[in-house]
């Protein structure tokens, strides 16, 4: 199975090269491809890149701080999703938090530099293979054997990135807020983004076939239990809205953009949840 590694910039290229050499050690049937040229904005893809992309069944986009906001990222993501199934496109975030990502990349399953996250990525690649699919126990054993090699290579790149960031940092720059606050905000962003994704695509949460089966097998009953679920969701939304309002009032300049995004997401959720809540009340009144 062919795997397309997309990159732009020196750090991104190093990551793609490490993946190219390491992934076949774990999944021998996978043939990674890294282009020899830097694909950046305004550059036409060469015929060999287009050919490799067409023949690939999986794509990894190597995202770093240097190229996160570059126009090519959205272009690459769109091109990969048109050629490869969306579920088989994985942006790999190196030294970047998921809360820092916005735009079209959010439609894909993001992977960060973390042992468990990378293991999930390898499992996904293994399941997408059209040739040899390793059973889980064997894959776990091989992954554990070769993980130290990948970690060692990535740690070298990570230290290089931290050295460059330290050199570029000016004395006027503010220190980041506490790690605890940062973690809470990241979790809040992750949860609200997930809620919006589910509300926009309910089929992902309840596939039509499963829903038809559940309705067919479930005995007839009143809608009170379903209504309780909607009430709880409505209550949770209002609580989340109050949290975002009180947080925005705090003087945290570093997080103003992120909290604005959270507020926008809450507003989008609110319109849909309020509608569901009103409809559930109407249904309940018809049964009383």
Explain what you see.
Residues 25-120 form the TIR domain. It comes from Spirosoma linguale (strain ATCC 33905 / DSM 74 / LMG 10896 / Claus 1). This is TIR domain-containing protein. Pfam families: TIR_2. It is a single chain. By secondary structure, this protein is of the alpha/beta class. It folds into 2 domains: 2-146, Toll/interleukin-1 receptor homology (TIR) domain (Rossmann fold); 179-287, no CATH class. The protein has 10 helices and 5 strands; from the N terminus they run E-H-E-H-E-H-E-E-H-H-H-H-H-H-H. Strands 2-1-3-4-5 form a 5-stranded parallel β-sheet, sandwiched between helices. Helix 1 (10-26) links the parallel strand 1 and strand 2. Helix 1 packs antiparallel against helix 5 (136-168) and helix 9 (224-249) packs antiparallel against helix 10 (256-287). The chain is globular and about 65 Å long. The relative contact order is 0.09.
In terms of structural class, how would the helical and strand content be classed?
A: alpha/beta
CA radius of gyration: 23 Å
Give me the oligomer status: single chain
The major pleated sheet works out as: 5 strands, parallel
- The CATH superfamily name of the largest domain is Toll/interleukin-1 receptor homology (TIR) domain
CATH topology of the largest domain, which one?
Rossmann fold
Low-confidence stretches: 40-44, 221-228
What's the count of strands? Answer: 5
The tally of domains stands at 2
Gross morphology = globular
CATH class term of the largest domain: Alpha Beta
Number of helices: 10
What's the pLDDT, averaged over the residues?
75
The H-and-E topology, N to C, reads as EHEHEHEEHHHHHHH
The neighbouring-strand order within the major sheet is 2-1-3-4-5
InterPro entries: TIR_dom, Toll_tir_struct_dom_sf
Protein name: TIR domain-containing protein
Pfam family, one: TIR_2
GO biological process, one term: signal transduction
């Amino acid at each position: 199975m062919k795997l397309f590694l997309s990159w732009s910039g020196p750090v991104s290229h190093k990551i793609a090269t490490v993946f190219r050499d390491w992934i076949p050690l774990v999944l021998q049937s996978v043939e990674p491809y890294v282009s020899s040229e830097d694909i950046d904005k305004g550059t036409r893809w060469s015929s060999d890149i287009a050919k490799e992309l067409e023949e690939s069944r999986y794509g990894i986009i190597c995202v770093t701080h240097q190229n996160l906001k570059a126009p090519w990222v959205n272009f690459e993501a769109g091109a990969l999703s048109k050629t490869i199934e969306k579920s088989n496109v994985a942006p790999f975030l190196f030294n970047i938090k998921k809360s820092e990502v916005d735009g079209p990349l959010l439609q894909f399953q993001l992977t960060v530099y973390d042992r468990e996250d990378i293991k999930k990525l390898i499992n996904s690649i293994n399941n997408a293979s059209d040739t040899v699919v390793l059973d889980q126990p064997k894959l776990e054993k091989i992954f554990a054997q070769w993980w130290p090699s990948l970690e060692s290579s990535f740690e070298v790149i990570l230290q290089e990135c931290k050295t460059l960031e330290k050199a570029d940092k000016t004395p006027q720059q503010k220190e980041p807020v506490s790690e605890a606050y940062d973690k809470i905000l990241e979790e809040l962003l992750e949860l609200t983004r997930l809620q919006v994704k589910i509300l926009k695509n309910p089929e992902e949460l309840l596939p039509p076939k499963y829903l038809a089966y559940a309705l067919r097998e479930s005995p007839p009953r009143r809608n009170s239990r379903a209504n309780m679920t909607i009430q709880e969701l409505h209550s949770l939304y209002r609580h989340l809205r109050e949290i975002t309002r009180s947080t925005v009032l705090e003087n945290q300049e570093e997080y103003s953009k992120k909290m604005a995004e959270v507020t926008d997401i809450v507003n989008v959720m609110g319109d849909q949840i309020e509608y569901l809540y009103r409809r559930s009340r109407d249904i309940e009144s018809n049964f009383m």
